[in-house]
């Protein structure tokens, strides 16, 4: 019997390094938009990746409820507002990585190392060229003009992309000025805000409005869609980059963060560094049509077709910190 127990112990001991070589990922990205990259990491690093996908806010709540027993190592999510929210909920742990600090500019990572951007996202104006002369457009601040009354489509104030856009405007222009702007901006909506970014694009083509504010990867995704109807819709819109003579167009990020109770911290860091590698950044650009956050990586041809633009220069950490103020401001303006 002793011999059997000893043999079993030796087997477990021998297997332990293999079992330990894993990392658990909670991802707000759909599986098809991240799994191929994680498979590549598994193969290259010999680390098993266990992936759970879901809505970003639900995943953050799940980590909070799991507490110290959470198996999650890495949180992948969109929008700096969510990353900052997870930090403020004390769900994250700071990482110290020279690789991440060298590859990702200071403006695109938390100053204390709690989160790092993986891609950049831009939120310009999209318009129908048969109903809008681009010479009519300029600053996003000009969209309060009465000539846009009943012509603007945009998502609801519950959407974090809009919340971050307003938070960014507060950082740039001050809360009082943005409040007045929002009060007038909502008066120009063509309809009660509803649906996602693709729905705003479709609404413009359907004639429900003339311009929409949406993230570029939605338009690029429709242009690359295997559904020819989506392609036809997307082909009818043009992208206008606002505020090119001023503060620049609004940008946001998707990012990664290590979770406070991560049981596999070393592997989690290896994964985060892998996602910031040249090959991963190129994959993001080509397959998700998001702007690489690491300099020197070529963007997708579809994104390049939207033209070069001047991006705003705002500390994204500040954008995340102003999320609550943005929500209150939008509520006061009656932005549903």
UniProtKB/TrEMBL annotation:
Domain of life (superkingdom): Bacteria
CDD domains the UniProt entry points to: PBP2_FutA1_ilke
Keyword annotations: Iron, Metal-binding, Signal
Acyltransferase is among the record's keywords: no
A GO MF label: metal ion binding
Annotated family: Belongs to the bacterial solute-binding protein 1 family.
Official protein name in the record: Iron deficiency-induced protein A
Organism: Planctobacterium marinum
Gene name linked to the record: idiA
């Amino acid at each position: 019997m002793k011999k059997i127990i000893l043999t079993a112990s030796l087997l477990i001991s021998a297997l332990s390094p293999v079992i330990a070589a894993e990392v658990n990922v909670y991802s707000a990205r759909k599986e098809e938009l991240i799994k191929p990259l994680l498979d590549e990491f598994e193969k290259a690093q010999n680390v098993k990746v266990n992936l759970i996908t879901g809505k970003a806010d639900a995943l953050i709540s799940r980590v909070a409820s799991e507490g110290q027993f959470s198996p999650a190592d890495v949180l992948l999510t969109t929008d700096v507002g969510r990353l900052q929210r997870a930090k403020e909920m004390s769900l994250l742990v700071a990482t110290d990585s020279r690789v991440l600090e060298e590859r990702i500019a200071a403006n695109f990572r938390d100053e204390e190392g709690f989160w790092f951007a993986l891609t950049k996202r831009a939120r310009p104006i999209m318009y129908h060229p048969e109903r809008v002369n681009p010479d009519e457009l300029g600053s996003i601040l000009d969209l309060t003009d009465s000539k846009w009354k009943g012509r603007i489509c945009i998502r609801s104030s519950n959407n974090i992309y809009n919340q971050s856009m307003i938070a960014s405007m507060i950082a740039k222009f001050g809360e009082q000025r943005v409040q007045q702007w929002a009060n007038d901006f909502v008066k120009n909506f063509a309809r009660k805000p509803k649906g996602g970014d693709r729905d705003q694009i479709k609404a413009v083509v359907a004639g429900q409005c003339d311009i929409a504010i949406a993230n570029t990867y939605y338009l690029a995704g429709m242009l690359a869609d295997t559904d020819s109807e989506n392609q036809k819709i997307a082909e009818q819109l043009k992208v206008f980059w606002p505020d090119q003579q001023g503060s620049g167009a609004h940008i946001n990020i998707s990012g990664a963060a290590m979770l406070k109770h991560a049981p596999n911290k070393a592997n989690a860091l290896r994964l985060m560094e892998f996602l910031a590698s040249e090959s991963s950044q190129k994959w993001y650009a080509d397959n998700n049509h998001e702007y690489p956050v690491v300099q020197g990586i070529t963007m997708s041809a579809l994104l390049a077709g939207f033209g070069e633009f001047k991006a705003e220069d705002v500390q994204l950490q500040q954008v995340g910190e102003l999320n609550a103020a943005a929500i209150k401001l939008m509520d006061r303006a009656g932005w549903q």
